[in-house]
Predict the structure.
Amino acid sequence: MPTRRSHASRHKRRLWAVFALTAGFLAVETAAALWTGSLALLADAAHMLVDAAAVLLSLVAVWFAERPATPEKTYGYYRVEILAALVNGVVLCLLAVWILIEAYERFRSPPAVPGGPILVVAAIGLGVNLAGMLLVRGAAAESLNVRSVYLDALGDAASSLAVIVAGAVIFFTGWTAADPLASAAIALVILPRTWGLLRQAANVLLEGAPAHLDVNEIGLALSEAPGVRGVHDLHVWTLTSGREAMSAHVVIESGTSTDKILEELHILLHARFGIDHTTIQVETEPAPLLQITRP
């Protein structure tokens, strides 16, 4: 049973590069957060930790997706990629909630934190995040899994900006409440972006119709093909990022060549909607009953 490489598998080197950048800076930021006592740096480091784990999980998912299909798993391991994106989104949402709670507690009684080191470390982190975004920006449109990595890097870049602002405020004014405020800003950046990722991943797992395809339009296109009289039991779903599947019952005119109809419909679905994995059951329209009139 042959398998096809997923979109994410074509970008493994970029994912490994992002992982190396993220994991390397994670060690630096964690040490700086523990030294300065900054919640903003600690929150950003926790975000980076989740991101590093998410990239590693994405690479594991790519490895599974490249494994061939088996008689027990006829679609192979394509859905592992979606599961990885789902786990990533759930963990990020939980992390954001924890940051908000901790930020509230610290805002009530802000600890003393040095602004200068926070500012320097955050600026380095911004450069690392921007580099990671550039590495996977082109691939983010092709794969939900790679897109989750891109969103992680984007969220980290926004987090670093918030920490830079907090560090500058503390350094120039001494107002340490800017540290928990920056932490809350990080959480508010994480939540809405990951919610969209969760919705997409859940829609794939529930075998919902892909957002970029109109099922009614597909049904209309099939029914308007030459020789087709009707379409029913039409289903469209996503196997993994960039690979959709479709099944349908097609009623054709009596006497029409079944092979020709199937070939034309497959070409139509590929060229117009980008659907390659199709299962079409052909049903022949019954011939009209012969009317016999007694003299």
